[in-house]
């Protein structure tokens, strides 16, 4: 996905809307501040994280649940900072 494509970026923002307000905030900040700098592999990792259930993803962001896929660590660390 090209970050210059406003339609694709809007689709990503929509996909980041979750049932947990806290997760909405973290994902929204991440997309605005960090996503444009990600390479394709990092974007694929982010996409995999978005496939997780809200509570599982939130537990990983807050550190109360361990990450099961090592290749997602870098992106998850950035999410924790968002």
Q: Could you characterize what this model shows?
A:
The structure is a single chain. This protein is mainly α and 82 residues long. It has one domain (6-81): DNA polymerase, domain 1. It contains 5 helices and no strands.
What's this entry about, in short?
This protein is mainly α and 82 residues long. The protein contains five helices and no strands.
Describe the protein's topology.
Layout lengths: L5 H10 L5 H13 L6 H11 L3 H9 L10 H9 L1
Instruction: State the CATH topology.
Output: DNA polymerase, domain 1
Tally the helices: what do you get? 5
Q: Quote the beta fraction.
A: under 5%
Spans of at least 5 consecutive residues whose pLDDT stays below 50 are none
Number of domains: 1
CATH superfamily: Flavinator of succinate dehydrogenase
User: Could you give the count of β-strands?
Assistant: 0
CATH class: Mainly Alpha
Following the backbone from N to C, one meets helices and strands in this order, namely HHHHH
Mean pLDDT: 90
Structural class: mainly alpha
Query: How far apart, in Å, are the first and last alpha carbons?
Result: 21 Å
Share of helix, binned: 55-70%
CATH architecture: Orthogonal Bundle
Radius of gyration: 12 Å
The description of the largest β-sheet is: none
The 3D shape can be described as globular
Name a few traits of the molecule:
about 80 residues, DNA polymerase, domain 1
């Amino acid at each position: 996905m090209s970050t210059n494509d406003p339609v694709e970026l809007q689709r990503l923002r929509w996909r980041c809307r979750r049932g947990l307000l806290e997760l909405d905030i973290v994902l929204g900040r991440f997309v605005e501040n960090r996503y444009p700098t990600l390479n394709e592999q990092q974007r694929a990792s982010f996409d995999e994280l978005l496939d997780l259930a809200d509570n599982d993803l939130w537990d990983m962001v807050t550190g109360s649940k361990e990450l099961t896929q090592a290749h997602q660590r870098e992106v998850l660390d950035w999410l924790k900072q968002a």
